[in-house]
Amino acid sequence: MTGEDAPDVAVVILSPAPDAEEGERLARVLVEERLAACVSQVPGVRTLCRWQGTTEATEEILLVIKSHARIAPQVVKRLGDLHPYTVPEILVLPVAAGHRGYLDWIREETTQGES
What we know:
Elements: E1 10-17, H1 20-32, E2 38-51, E3 54-68, H2 72-82, E4 91-94, H3 100-109
Antiparallel strand pairs: 1-3, 1-4, 2-3
């Protein structure tokens, strides 16, 4: 459901960042490059996971990125290139429904400058 053949739907992309400074940097790039209409930064996320054979617990900032299915592959690529983690968590979730005006705004903000 991503790329050129994607339906006209918004997506939410979730990706944690190691701290507020890095979260702000990633969010700013995505918004300024019009890959995201907006990015919410949720502090105080505690993550527990297995990584390279050990269980790790970390405090992170969760980025909630609002974008469009049509450009989701570009967002994933750019975020992966920018992210400080070796294997960044980047999950694209389709939006089933929402306020029409907000969904239209996401589409408009992620369409500007497209060729």
